[in-house]
């Protein structure tokens, strides 16, 4: 986990947009001292992954539906 956290931080420094999500992932990044060295750390967990995959999320759909 620490090696992956460092790799993400290095990729961010090189200009990559890095996104991580989930409670365990966030905790691992914080423990490695790398949470503030990536582009975005989401607390959305699996919903973050589903959103990035382009799946429909009921909460997002409710906000974007126009009557």
Automatic annotation (TrEMBL):
<dbReference type="Pfam" id="PF00162">
    <property type="entry name" value="PGK"/>
</dbReference>
<dbReference type="GO" id="GO:0005524">
    <property type="term" value="F:ATP binding"/>
</dbReference>
<dbReference type="GO" id="GO:0006096">
    <property type="term" value="P:glycolytic process"/>
</dbReference>
<protein>
    <recommendedName>
        <fullName>Phosphoglycerate kinase</fullName>
        <ecNumber>2.7.2.3</ecNumber>
    </recommendedName>
</protein>
<dbReference type="GO" id="GO:0043531">
    <property type="term" value="F:ADP binding"/>
</dbReference>
<dbReference type="InterPro" id="IPR001576">
    <property type="entry name" value="Phosphoglycerate_kinase"/>
</dbReference>
<keyword id="KW-0808">Transferase</keyword>
<dbReference type="InterPro" id="IPR015824">
    <property type="entry name" value="Phosphoglycerate_kinase_N"/>
</dbReference>
<dbReference type="InterPro" id="IPR036043">
    <property type="entry name" value="Phosphoglycerate_kinase_sf"/>
</dbReference>
<dbReference type="GO" id="GO:0004618">
    <property type="term" value="F:phosphoglycerate kinase activity"/>
</dbReference>
<dbReference type="GO" id="GO:0005829">
    <property type="term" value="C:cytosol"/>
</dbReference>
<keyword id="KW-0418">Kinase</keyword>
<keyword id="KW-0067">ATP-binding</keyword>
<comment type="similarity">
    <text>Belongs to the phosphoglycerate kinase family.</text>
</comment>
<dbReference type="GO" id="GO:0006094">
    <property type="term" value="P:gluconeogenesis"/>
</dbReference>
<keyword id="KW-0547">Nucleotide-binding</keyword>
